[in-house]
């Protein structure tokens, strides 16, 4: 979604996104390996982020549900791609990718995650955008940089999204937002717009819904 889009178009997309996410959103399946992926017959937007970045909470807020996405009891143990269908008939799919950067995961688990995610990113023709979630309290970490590198190498367009924006002061949020936008500009595959969100206060959620819809359908 272009930052210089006319206001009328942005309002129309925002309302369309609100109606879409107010409708059916259903869990489709989990894919522990590529052969279990659903048929590539709908555009997909994937969500990536460090363990405990608030990905499940953001997905729940985005879809207006309380528990469509559940946080793993043991961070780093869930090594599957989870697919959710949005709309009836299906307009798009949301893909919940396993969290990265977990400290206690065995090397074999880490390598399994890396292989699954890398192969999905490189080989999924219907993947329209990946959203990389960044904890606003901490900003970009080296492990996030590794994820951006993986996306750059896979030539997948992505967008940086700040989570837990309500947990820091507005001045601190502005500084983190500016730093994140500056980093995004260094990556040709990164969208220049960074959205700050809060799953608790719902700040930024309407903007994120509109961005997800626009990214999925190339609006």
Automatic annotation (TrEMBL):
SUPFAM superfamilies, alphabetized: P-loop containing nucleoside triphosphate hydrolases
Record keywords, A-Z: Cell cycle, Cell division, GTP-binding, Magnesium, Metal-binding, Nucleotide-binding, Septation
InterPro entries listed in its UniProt record: G_ENGB_dom, GTP-bd, GTP-bd_ribosome_bio_YsxC, P-loop_NTPase, Small_GTP-bd
Names of the cofactor(s): Mg(2+)
Domain of life: Bacteria
Domain EngB-type G, first and last residues per copy: 41-218
PROSITE patterns for the chain: G_ENGB (PS51706)
Job of this protein: Necessary for normal cell division and for the maintenance of normal septation.
Family: Belongs to the TRAFAC class TrmE-Era-EngA-EngB-Septin-like GTPase superfamily. EngB GTPase family.
Name of the protein in its database record: Probable GTP-binding protein EngB
Annotated organism of origin: Novosphingobium tardum
Top-level taxonomy: Bacteria, Pseudomonadati, Pseudomonadota, Alphaproteobacteria, Sphingomonadales
Protein encoded by which gene: yihA
């Amino acid at each position: 979604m272009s930052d210089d889009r006319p206001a009328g178009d942005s309002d129309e997309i925002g309302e369309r996104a609100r109606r879409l996410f107010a409708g059916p959103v259903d869990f489709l399946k989990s894919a522990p390996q590529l052969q279990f992926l659903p048929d590539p017959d709908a555009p997909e937007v994937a969500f990536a982020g460090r363990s405990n970045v608030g990905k499940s909470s953001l997905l729940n807020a985005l879809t207006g549900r309380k528990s469509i996405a559940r946080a793993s009891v043991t961070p780093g143990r869930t090594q599957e791609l989870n697919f959710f269908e949005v709309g009836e008939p299906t307009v798009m799919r949301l893909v919940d990718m396993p969290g990265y950067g977990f400290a206690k995961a065995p090397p074999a688990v880490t390598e399994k995650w890396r292989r699954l995610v890398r192969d999905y990113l490189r080989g999924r023709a219907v993947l329209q955008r990946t959203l990389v979630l960044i904890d606003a309290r901490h900003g970009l970490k080296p492990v996030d940089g590794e994820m951006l590198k993986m996306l750059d190498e896979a030539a997948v367009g992505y967008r940086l999204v700040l989570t837990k924006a309500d947990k820091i002061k507005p001045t601190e949020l502005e500084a983190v937002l500016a730093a994140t936008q500056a980093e995004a500009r260094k990556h040709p595959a990164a969208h220049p717009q960074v959205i700050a969100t809060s799953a608790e206060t719902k700040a930024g959620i309407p903007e994120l819904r509109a961005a997800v819809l626009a990214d999925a359908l190339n609006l």
